[in-house]
Amino acid sequence: MKRVALLILTLFLLFINCSAQAAQKYTKKAIKAVSTDGFNINATLTYPKIKTQKEFKTVVLLHSLGYNSTWWGDLPQRLLEHNYAVLSIDLRGHGTSVYDSALERTSWKDITNKAYSKYPDDVLAVINKVKEENSKRIFFNNWAIVGSDIGASAGILAADKSKVRPKTIVMLSPVTETKGLYIPVSIAHLDNVDILAITGTDDTLSKDAADYLSKFAQAHFAEYTSESKTSGMLMIKNDESLTKVIAEWITAYFN
Questions:
Q1: Are 162 and 188 in contact (CB under 8 A)?
Q2: For the chain, how many structural domains are there in total?
């Protein structure tokens, strides 16, 4: 019995030590931005602790409707292992981004399409906040977006408004229009941005949307079918190979 207890204690201490060592490798910052209409948008910026590195290739993660930035599974860690910076945003009405200027709590279930239309500007507000607070480092000269359903739509629309376009965009379970966010026209504007659309095996609606959106693309529009029968961010949980697929796609454009 004592040997079992000692083994458990040893394994626990080893886990704590490994976790502490991993945490020492990265800098994590809370980003708080205010939208054009006074809504508080929160995000987390994580990047490797490399003193000699001043410019970081950055991946922006935009979650699904009804989820939040903690649902990305192993994807952030895999991206960090490539020495990329990762900006995980809680979209308006989700996660920690639920308070307006009067500190009144508002859920995604209660906001209108007019508020949803602010999503692209919210994303850009967070990106600008990162630039403002990290003037000694460069994060968005080389960047990419990974978004899921409404997050993918917000990413497409934000990219269309951005002065510096992302190198590439990965869309999980894309939709043509959701909550008033219509993206075909913006995809047509992204003439130098290649797109990867990922759908689940049984996700026929997103597959149809991807086929339709591909007709508007002026750059390369690739489609990938995951072995997962789910959709959105749940594909990452149910298909362990998907984080590798996404990371390798992004790496091809960053390199």
A1: no
A2: 1
Please report the pLDDT score of residue 118 as a whole number. 97
CB atoms closer than 10 angstroms to residue 46:
17
134-154: per-residue pLDDT in tens?
988 999 999 999 999 999 999
DSSP string of 207-231? HHHHHHHHTT-SS-EEEEE-S-SS-
4, part of any domain: no
Least confident of 2-16, 106-120, 132-146: 2-16
Tell me whether residue 192 is in a domain.
yes
Q: What's the CATH code of the domain at 216?
A: 3.40.50.1820
The domain of 187 spans 23-254
Q: What is the pLDDT of residues 58-71, one digit of tens each?
A: 999 999 999 999 99
**Mean pLDDT value of segment 105-128:** 96
